[in-house]
Write the structure tokens for this entry.
Amino acid sequence: MKKTVYIVAMISSLSLIAQDFDSLINLKALKYEANVIELRHWFHQNAELSNREYKTAEKISNVLTEIGLIPQTKVAKTGVVAVLEGGKPGPVVALRADIDGLPVKERADLPWKSNMTGKYNGEEVPVMHACGHDTHTAILLGVAKILYEIKEEVPGTIKFIFQPAEEGAPAGEEGGAELMVKEGVLKNPDVEAIFGLHIWSQIKAGEVFVRPRGIMAAVNEFRIDIEGAQTHGSTPWTGIDPIVTASQIINNIQTIVSRNLPLTKAAAVVTIGSIHGGVRSNIIPENLYMLGTIRTLEESMKETVLKRLEKIVHKTAEANNAKVKITYQVSYPITYNDPVLYERMLPSLKRINGDNNVHLMTAITGAEDFSFFQKEIPGMYFFIGGAKKGTDPNNAAPHHTPDFYVDDSAMITGIKSMSTLALDYLKDNK
């Protein structure tokens, strides 16, 4: 009897090895879909700000423990990491989900609407998952459930990375992917490749968008401080006007993109988004500062922008007899899909989602700190649709807005895609 049981088990195992994982992933994705949606609703209702994802991390840790994994907590402050060792030898691959929310007041009338609040820049603010990180977190937990169930057939090791502070750490703090890398999240065991996704409200649920090389922009956020000489507004010649200087700087730096960059090669943006200076109509202030952002999709173009910004700002200030200082506050690399990894894994995305549902996209000027992982190892980042089927995605509220919404029907695409990418990579590289 024991021999018969052994033979049956061996045949079953060999059958699973021989069969494509796809049918198994499809079945288990359907099995866990409702549970993943339930988790997504919980994370949405309990949104927390960057480096403050305490309840979120606790929930992730508890679910991972229930699955059978051993979570490592307090990684990069509030991150959670777990490692699944497959039953067969093979390489190590990582899957990443970001977990933080934003200081946005949710307007959507949902049963699982967020009414959370938190501290942002010293102020009490509403908190909402206005970028879909709740879906990313729930999807990765669903993937962990599926892969743990079939772990004996997994040819390698999978590291699940739940990353805090993708939206940026609070002022004066470190955080996000950069800190995770610094703390060694890609080591012990050493990760060969990493995959990440982002849900998008303006893409139909069930669709996937991806591209090789630069998919999201590098971002450099900067502050320009201008020092003039205060005087009465009626006698501007007796002072040095930082407001006029600022206005000239704003106009002049717009020529960086329009006159210094080969825009047929890639897009770039230089934007001033905030100006602070002055208190009265009849007082020319002594000081002024403004905040801006640079977005580039090509490394040499980024260097050109930074050099030109420095020169234009300093020379314009000099022409006005003002003093000026530029400081850089945030710097993310280009989110860059390794072209070899992309070519190898694109068939996986097409096979599990259907060839007609996977599209080549143009690069976007948003930024992602997933790029810090990609600086260290080959990585692939892609987008899945979040607009409810049958609706016009063009009418969907954009990310980071109070009316932002992504549909639960999108979850299964993420579960299937991430599971397939992990397994296919391990099979092909063992």
Notes: Residues 181 and 187 are 9 Å apart (CA to CA).
